[in-house]
Amino acid sequence: MSPDVPRLEKSIYIDAPPDVVFPFFTDPERMIRWCGEAAELEHTAGGVFRLRFEGGVVSEGRFVIVDPPHRVVFTVGMTGSAVPPGGSTVEVRLAPEGKGTRLTLRHDGFDPSQPVSEGWDHHLGRLQRAARGEVLGPDRFVAELP
Description:
The chain is α+β, with helices and mostly antiparallel strands.
């Protein structure tokens, strides 16, 4: 990868096994428990990845790799932004760790002028809580951006 392409890496522990965590990236109902307000997810290679956030912002792309419960790769971007639909790539790896899961996320090709790191910190924190069964309120992160 070119050194000019932004790359972000995050790693978190989730107190749930990989087979519980994985569907939070592929099942629309589980996805919106922690990220966005509506989702269209066709979780096969080439399938649609579309996530609508409060305020009408839509992130869309395609699933590239779907390997339950270990790995999912999808593209994302937004119409009218510096990164168009499908213009960046997110890879999520899930590995058993103790009684839970080590999630490692890599996001390549995002718009560095956007709060991508803060967004992933917010959303991965929500995922940790949702995967252990907490019921969360609406996800307002994107709608509250300046």
